[in-house]
Design goal:
heterodimer; A: 296 residues; alpha+beta; 3-methyladenine DNA Glycosylase II, Chain A, domain 3; Alpha-Beta Plaits; 2 domains; two-stranded antiparallel sheet; B: 442 residues; alpha/beta; Rossmann fold; six-stranded mixed beta sheet; four-stranded antiparallel beta sheet
Chain lengths: 296, 442
């Protein structure tokens, strides 16, 4: 009885020793050297594997960072300057500093302002409907509303607004990886510099048609009237093909263009309400209440 | 037994309701919208300006390169606008808008000249004339004909095949043309045989057009070297590769052309256009269009000026019936629904199909049940279910390796799919993406 226990213990032990020796020999013989820096850099990266840097994943990007001499044109948009600085410290290479950016949707053509004129029955993806025809509305530049951008967003930073049929970008979650920009067949989503307090002014339209046609297709279309260009004190507005574009680098966010736009196609976000207007409305209200009093 | 291609194919209901209706002359449109891109390749360059007076048949847009085609004014009138109009692609494209001069007699001149059989031009001049006359493949692909006919020296060429198959349901434009212009088509074939030094020609016609087969058989003589071949009714027999296989048992290599097996294929409509250009000096400014649909008051075939808005055509047949859901440019299998009624007729419009609610709706797509129907019917021997999955997942390298580019987009797979899967939509998308991938690689 005790013999059988002994034999089995010995057998197992010797098997273990043989296997260990084999493993040791194999691991020495087939050893692959990997630069330990790669793992170190990879740990610094956000591990989102979003592909925003142009590499297929964070590991591949780390390899690229370690193996390339000059990394000044490589950038992780999700990690931003902070991560890139750490990477630069670890690798001892110089990195470029980039202003943080944010995705914005340059179309406001919701169901209420941009009526549907045709019905599409094909597969519900923007890529295919854009290939087949110009969309369910008369605007061939605007959002198709099938949400390809939402599908590719890995950070849950986008959702489809049911009431307007347009995607919405959640600013706090957007990492500016650029996946949505690539997914959109209409190039509606643009990466614009992120302001400290997230103030934004941009033209929310891409319609290049002439005024009448554009307005007929969509109530909030840019009609190319050039009023914004005329009023802009800094010449930040470019007019190309009946369409205004506000250069984010030159724009000082003075909001003059927003006021003059006859179709409300210029979008401003996160600005505090205008003081002047408030005073006016208050005084009007005061006058009214005074009148009421006198009547009474 | 009747000839046909061996692999795949379907037989949808024919619905050729207009096959007994003679080709009528369409009322002269008041305004024509002539797109400058009516062919595969580079768009033509506009040579007229606003307020210019143009004559019928005058070049208004010049060929933009080798892979391009001239465009002629279909009417005599005045250019009123150079504008962007939604065309059959569904997008706004550059168009020349011409207001017809209703007092100009040349607009009303009959183009049905008496038959002229003697060929006076030299082969070189014939090819040049085809190029100048803006002739493109009228079967629907609108491939510039002069490109097809520019054959490198030393290429072995033994057969000219005339495509009179018209396998699309509903359409009868080619059928009527063969009945009414049979003699002209034979002369057209002789012109091409002479120009290309080919001494054998075959006209392929599906067996459901027995009267057309009879007409041709009556006309041709033994010395013509033209054969008439009756084919089994099967879609998509009108595809070049399928037709060559059916008639000559020659397999056109994948990614290759019929030219690689010594054959050149032309549609009967193109042949008639060539006849008009060579013998009567008339460029391609009008074509036969079938205006059809089950609910239409009097569907028929028409001679239609290029650039005529589809509204005019629909009005001609008694207006839009109630419950219309879709208007399709082309046949029900390969045609494409148009975006609005102002879309003009182009060189590639073989039919306008008005379909109602119950015919038009697509079924709700469900999961693939692996029945293999799509594989059975694919005339190119592809696996449509696989190609759809690959392009849905963005695996374009793999799709390319599975020969997605050889798909002829006949739509047989989508037609038979019991789960109503949008196979062709995804395959087209995959083809586009593979094309993009290949161009970015080079």
């Amino acid at each position: 009885m005790s013999d059988s226990i002994l034999y089995s213990v010995l057998l197992l032990a010797s098997l273990g020793v043989v296997a260990a020796i084999m493993l040791y020999v194999v691991s020495k013989k087939f050893y692959v050297f990997e630069n330990p820096l790669i793992t170190e850099v990879e740990e610094l990266l956000p591990s989102a594997n979003c592909g925003g840097c142009g590499s297929p994943g964070c590991k591949a990007f780390a390899e690229k960072l370690v193996n390339t001499e000059d990394i000044s044109d490589l950038f992780c948009p999700v990690g931003g300057n902070e991560v890139m600085k750490q990477v630069a410290y670890v690798l001892g290479k110089a990195v470029a500093e980039k202003d943080p950016t944010l995705a914005v949707l340059r179309c406001q053509g919701g169901c209420d302002v941009r009526p549907k004129t045709t019905e599409y029955q094909g597969p519900r993806t923007c890529a295919i409907s854009a290939m087949i025809y110009s969309g369910e509305t008369d605007c061939q530049y605007g959002c198709l509303g099938d949400g390809d951008c939402v599908k590719v967003c890995k950070f849950d930073a986008m959702y489809m607004d049911e009431s307007t049929g347009l995607p919405v970008i959640i600013t706090d979650k957007c990492t500016s990886c650029g996946a949505c920009v690539e997914a959109c067949p209409r190039d509606i989503i643009e990466m614009r510099p992120k302001h400290k307090r997230d103030l934004k002014i941009f033209v929310g339209c891409l319609n290049e048609d002439k005024a009448g046609i554009a307005k007929k297709a969509c109530d909030v279309a840019c009609i190319g009237c050039s009023k914004c260009q005329d009023i802009c004190p800094k010449d930040a507005v470019l007019m190309v093909n009946n369409l205004a574009y506000i250069d984010p680098v030159i724009c000082t966010l003075c909001r003059k263009c927003v006021e003059v736009c006859p179709t409300n196609s210029i979008i401003e976000t996160n600005f505090p309400p205008k003081k002047v207007k408030k005073v006016e409305s208050e005084s009007e209200a005061n006058v009214e209440s005074i009148n009421l009093k006198t009547d009474a | 037994m009747l000839k046909t291609f061996p692999k795949g194919g379907i037989h949808p209901p024919e619905n050729k309701i207009t096959s007994s209706k003679g080709i009528k002359k369409m009322t002269l449109p008041k305004v024509v919208y002539v797109p400058i891109s009516q062919h595969i390749g580079i768009p033509a360059e506009i040579t007229v300006d606003v307020k210019d007076k143009v004559d019928i048949g005058q070049v208004i847009a010049k060929s933009g390169g080798f892979m391009s085609s001239n465009i002629h004014s279909p009417v005599a009138g005045t250019v009123t606008k150079l504008d962007k109009i939604i065309d059959t692609s569904g997008y706004k494209k550059q168009c020349i808008v011409i207001r017809t001069d209703l007092k100009d007699e040349s607009n009303f001149k009959d183009t049905a000249y008496p038959l002229k059989t003697t060929i006076t031009l030299e082969p070189k001049d014939i090819l040049q004339k085809i190029n100048d006359s803006g002739i493109v493949g009228l079967g629907g692909a609108t491939f510039p004909s002069h490109v097809k006919l520019s054959i490198k020296e030393g290429t072995k060429l033994d057969h000219l095949i005339i495509n009179g198959v018209e396998c699309e349901p509903y359409l009868t434009a080619d059928h009527r043309l063969m009945l009414e212009k049979a003699e002209e088509i034979i002369v057209g074939i002789k012109i091409l045989m002479f120009a290309l030094h080919i001494n054998k020609a075959i006209i392929g016609i599906e067996n459901n057009k027995a009267d057309a087969i009879e007409t041709f058989k009556r006309i041709i003589t033994k010395d013509d070297n033209i054969k008439i071949a009756a084919l089994k009714v099967k879609y998509p027999q009108g595809g070049e590769k399928q037709l060559v296989r059916a008639l000559l048992k020659r397999e056109v290599p994948k990614n290759g052309l019929p030219l690689d097996v010594g054959v050149i294929v032309h549609n009967v409509g193109t042949i008639f256009a060539i006849y008009q250009a060579i013998q009567h000096n008339i460029p391609l400014i009008e074509r036969v269009v079938t205006v059809t649909g089950k609910k239409l008051e009097n569907p028929s075939n028409y001679w239609v000026k290029i650039g005529t808005p589809i509204t005019d055509l629909v009005n001609e047949v008694g207006g839009l019936p109630e419950g219309t859901r879709k208007i399709v440019n082309g046949g029900p299998m390969m045609g494409k629904a148009i975006k609005n009624m102002d879309v003009p007729v182009t060189k590639g419009t073989s039919g306008i199909l008005v379909i109602s609610e119950d015919e038009a709706s697509r079924g709700e797509p469900k999961n693939c049940i692996r029945c293999g129907e799509c594989v059975d019917v694919c005339p190119m021997g592809l696996e449509p279910h696989l190609l759809m999955n690959l392009s849905e997942k963005g695996m374009y390298e793999k799709a390319s390796a599975e020969d997605i580019m050889t798909c002829i987009e006949c739509g047989s797979c989508s037609y038979v799919c019991p789960s109503h899967r949008p196979l062709l939509d995804y395959i087209r998308f995959g083809k586009n993406s593979v094309k993009k991938m290949n161009t970015s690689k080079n």
